[in-house]
Amino acid sequence: MSLRTRIMDDLKAAMKAGQSDRVAQIRAISAKIKDLEVAARAGKGEVSEDDILLALRSMIKSRTESAEMYHKGNRPELAAKEEAEIETIRSYLPAELSEDAVKAAIEEAVQQTGAAGMKDMGRVMGVLKGRFGAALDAGKASGLVKARLS
Fold first, then answer.
1. Which of 7, 81, 136, 139 pairs as cysteine with 132 (C-beta 3.0–4.6 A)?
2. For residue 33, which phi and psi values (nearest 5 degrees)?
């Protein structure tokens, strides 16, 4: 089942169950996908599953930042709302790779590219993105690559 189909099925189920919060969260995801499709139509391109996964990761990042600001601003109810949205969005992402698996992949990429320092970070990240695609959390991976190459 495609990711789009799963999202639409979950939206219908949440509507039937009367889960208004979940409906709003899934509608936000659906709206983001529609935005991607409109942008792709302008460029005569298609929206791939990887494009959708990258957009979902972007949504998580922005909501994480918002939740942190709400916590700092002593607004726990708004922070809880953002965190609930994060959990809903995460449910559509593939399982994250363990840190050990990412480190092993980084070692392989370093060996493969012959990376010796920070100037080679882009090549290592390119190999990792090519191997794992949108399943790779680039933010976490880049931190591990920096630590390895430093």
1. 136
2. -65, -40
Query: Mind listing the pLDDT tens digit for each residue in 48-107?
Result: 888 888 899 899 999 999 999 999 999 999 999 999 999 999 999 887 777 888 888 888
**Residue 91, phi-psi category: left (phi > 0), alpha (psi -120 to 50), beta (remainder):** alpha
108 and 83 co-located in one domain: no
Q: What was the pLDDT predicted at 83?
A: 95
Same structural domain, 82 and 128? no
- List CB contacts of 71: < 8 A, sequence separation 6 or more: 79
Looking at the structure of the chain, the number of domains it has is: 2
Place of tokens 């010796």: 116
| Entry pTM | 0.74
Full domain range(s) for residue 112: 99-149
Distance of CA 63 to the CA centre of its chain: 11
pLDDT at 105 (0 to 100): 87
Are residues 131 and 77 part of one domain? Answer: no
Torsion of CA 63, 69, 75, 81, to 10 degrees: 0
Q: Which amino acid is at 121?
A: M
61 and 30 within one domain: yes
Q: Are residues 82 and 24 in the same domain?
A: yes
